[in-house]
Amino acid sequence: SPQIKIAPSILSADFANFGAEIEAVEAQGADWIHVDVMDGHFVPNLTFGPPLCAAIRRHISTVMDVHLMIAPVDPYIEAFAAAGADILTAHYEAGPHVHRTLQAIRTAGCKAGLALNPGTSVEVVAPLLDLLDLVCVMTVNPGFGGQSFIASQIDQVARLKQIIGDRPIKIEIDGGVDPATAPELVRAGADVLVAGSAVFRGGSVDNPAPYGDNIRAI
Ligand code: DX5
Ligand code: ZN
């Protein structure tokens, strides 16, 4: 669907070749680049921090969409903004002061996103709508690529769409997105689909055509 954006997650790319991977997947049709930051505390996995984000920023010509799976968030907002994030998405579950966090993200010059774990009701966004540019509905428990899609989240996406109404807030979906799950997500109101394993499978920087086939299949 042409107005739906596909945001490949570089969690499923070759970590030794991020620059070339990003350029390859953009050339194959990626709309945004999704960057998964994990701290081994909020989620049971570790990835990377602001210096690596700054290094890969130079290879991104589209939107750098940074998903912060870290707690606390606030001490790191300025560093990720300085690293070139266009969108900074924090988790609702990451701390008691999410309203302050979202304000701080906009003050740092980024678009503000809020991610919701599968165990969190989408109703929590209601008091925060004026502070939001994006809501990310997790359709897996965050921490790893390649997990199974949690189908009960589709109803939550539809409810979120109703809550947002005609406000300019994008609905992003993250986890287990593939050609089988994407259509019902789009019907429920998704605007941006993150996909890691479903984009990078079968390809490489030396053979990037599968990335394009995979993106078009979603
Ligand atoms: C999960 C990450 C996702 C992940 C998606 O914690 O936030 O962005 O990379 O991977 P797939 O598309 O393989 O489920
Ligand atoms: Zn993510």
From TrEMBL:
Its cofactor is a divalent metal cation; Zn(2+); Mn(2+); Co(2+). Coiled coil: none annotated. GO terms for cellular component: cytoplasm. CDD domains: RPE. It comes from the Bacteria. One of its GO terms (molecular function) is D-ribulose-phosphate 3-epimerase activity. PROSITE patterns: RIBUL_P_3_EPIMER_1. Pathway: Carbohydrate degradation. Substrate binds at S9, H67, G143, F144, G145, G146, D174, G175, G176, G196, S197. InterPro entries: Aldolase_TIM (IPR013785), Ribul_P_3_epim (IPR026019), Ribul_P_3_epim-like (IPR000056), RibuloseP-bd_barrel (IPR011060). The active site is at D36, D174. GO terms for biological process: pentose catabolic process; pentose-phosphate shunt. Binds 1 divalent metal cation per subunit. Its EC number is 5.1.3.1. Keywords: Carbohydrate metabolism, Cobalt, Isomerase, Manganese, Metal-binding, Zinc. A divalent metal cation binds at H34, D36, H67, D174. It is an enzyme of class 5 (isomerase). It catalyses: D-ribulose 5-phosphate = D-xylulose 5-phosphate. Belongs to the ribulose-phosphate 3-epimerase family. PANTHER family: RIBULOSE-5-PHOSPHATE-3-EPIMERASE. Catalyzes the reversible epimerization of D-ribulose 5-phosphate to D-xylulose 5-phosphate. This is Ribulose-phosphate 3-epimerase. It comes from Pseudooceanicola atlanticus. The gene is rpe.
